[in-house]
Amino acid sequence: MKKVFKILGILLLLLILGLGVIYVIYNQDEPEAAPTAEADLLADKMMASVNKAAWDSTRWVKWNFPNGNQYIWNKEKHLVQVTMGDNVVLLNPGEISGKAFKNGKEVPPAKGQGLIKSAWDNFNNDSFWLNAIVKAKDPGTVRSIVKLDDGQTGLKVEYKGGGTTPGDSYVWILDENNRPTSYKMWVSIIPVGGFEASWEQYEPISTGALISRSHKLSKINLQITDVAGGMNLSDVGLTEDPFVGM
């Protein structure tokens, strides 16, 4: 038994050392800069590159996230149906409230609150990966233009409040048309600062808003599937409104 614990201790030490090496090699200091009107203008251009006006007018959106979560979002009323395996939550994100169901049966409110909170956390994360570009001027954000270590110029967006993890920062890398090709992240859930994720495979939904379907993070590829959006229920494959009575 002592030998087993010794081996486990050695493996744990090697894991810690390995993570330390990764941190030293890949970690980047967060670039600092003061907010400017120029940065606000660049944010407007970035959002226009994916047709934010069309996104704002879109009433219904659906998508599947790689973790298995499925979403139907009434953007007009800001209500979301979140499917997480056997659990379905009809969520009001603004109030972190709603109704939870397991295997088709409604869960009592006292027990359902945990599912509602999980749905809220998942929606915040998965909708950000769906279209974080249009959130560059959300309430609680600050924008600046920064120079990165590799000489690139980036648009930094800091989220001072709101969401599940306030305090996160992102630096967008833009192409010649001001459309993002990637961003670098300084976020609480990733210990390595400056971790980069691509934004590619842009395709329009029926209203004309462009959505990036693919995000590559090192060897991981987050592929967002079954994306649809429009003005009517039928545009997302529905015949009945799931939010009647909410």
Describe the 3D structure.
With 246 residues, the chain is α+β, with helices and mostly antiparallel strands. The chain has one domain: outer membrane lipoprotein receptor (LolB), chain A. 27% of the residues lie in helices and 34% in strands. It contains 4 helices and 15 strands. It has helices at residues 2-26, 37-48, 52-57, 109-131, and strands at 60-64, 70-74, 79-84, 87-92, 97-102, 105-106, 141-147, 153-159, 169-174, 180-186, 195-198, 200-204, 210-217, 220-223, 225-230. A 7-stranded antiparallel sheet has the order 6-5-4-3-2-1-15, with helices on one face. It has a 5-stranded antiparallel sheet with strand order 7-8-9-10-11, with helices on one face. A hairpin with a 4-residue loop joins strand 2 (70-74) and strand 3.
What are the key terms here?
alpha+beta; 27% helix; 246 residues; outer membrane lipoprotein receptor (LolB), chain A
Q: What string gives the helices and strands in order?
A: HHHEEEEEEHEEEEEEEEE
Radius of gyration: 20 Å
Unreliable spans: 1-25
Instruction: Tell me the distance between the termini.
Output: 58 Å
Number of helical stretches of at least 4 residues: 4
Strand order of the largest sheet: 6-5-4-3-2-1-15
User: What's the overall geometry?
Assistant: globular
Number of strands: 15
Q: Any guess at the CATH architecture?
A: Clam
List the SSEs and their pairings.
Layout: H1 2-26, H2 37-48, H3 52-57, E1 60-64, E2 70-74, E3 79-84, E4 87-92, E5 97-102, E6 105-106, H4 109-131, E7 141-147, E8 153-159, E9 169-174, E10 180-186, E11 195-198, E12 200-204, E13 210-217, E14 220-223, E15 225-230
